[in-house]
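EI: anyone free to look at a 108-residue chain?
SC: sure, send it
EI:
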Amino acid sequence: VSVVKARKYMENGCTAYLVSMDAIEQKLKPISEVRTVKDYADMFPEDLPGLPPVREVEFGIELIPGTAPISKAPYRMAPAELEELKKQIQDLANKGFIRPSVSPWGAP
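SC: here you go
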C-alpha cells in the first residue's frame, strides 16, 4: 500500500498499525547436531554402503499394448538448481545407485 493510499484509508476512518520488522538470519544446524540423528546415529551413515541385495522379483510395470508414451516437457529450474541437480545425479550414477533410463516413458 502506498503512503498516499494509506493516508486516504486513515482519513476515511480505517485503523492503521505501525510495524517494525528486523531480518533475523536463521543458522541451520549441521545434520550431526540434530537430536534424532544423534540418538540413532547407526541409522544415518555418512555414506551409503551400496545398493540393497538383489531381490527375487524383478520390478516392472505392465503396459497396455499400443499405448504411446506421454510427451511432457520438464519443469523449468533456476540455473543454480539445475547445476546442483546435475551434480547430484552424476554423483549417484558414479556410485552405482542410479543408471540411465531405457524406458520410453522415462524423463528426457
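EI: The chain has one domain: 3-95.
SC: 👍
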